[in-house]
Here is the input.
Amino acid sequence: MKGMRILAGIVLFGSLWGLMECGLGDYLHNQGIWAGAIMTGFVGFGLMAISRKIYGIRGMQLGMGLIAGLLKYIHPVGGCMLCSAIAIAFEGAIFEMIWYSPKLSMDKMSAIMKISMGVISGYVIYSTGYIITQILTPIAASAPVYTSDIAAVIPKILSTATIAGLAGGLALPAILSIPGDSASRIVNARKEVYYPAAYAISLLCWIGILMLS
Here is the structure.
């Protein structure tokens, strides 16, 4: 698969992820709902799983996380933009580590395996990403890191991660139920259609983020 086609896919899915974080994520946060856990389990993990199913390329999800994290950081609405951006960027990296082995083929999993890997992915991506933000956010902001503060929030992080795990357990089987030929049509679309569509949708996502500001 050509590198430019993969790059367009990274920009597309990363932009969709960023838009959802800035729109739906902020809405859930304002409603006091488990915003981070739901966004990680359904949206972040969901989009990364979809892109892995469609393209079957490792490394894409890291790029998606970096783009989505950057878009979240420049969106001046909500709480801590820096910690949210760090969390999103690292979610992409954590996904890559969990799904690094070629043996974890999404098309060859049993129903129980799909649910199990969804739960594990959602839980680990959310909890690990959250803990990393507690360490890196003060460093990036040139503030001291207090291990006692980090230790104090870990029980809350691990308990809330259960929501992300349940969301992932629902998301992955649903995503993998999409027929393989549908995914193939997307990735193998003619370049005259594929590139304009990918970049036009990405541009609309960026415009939408600006309008949400």
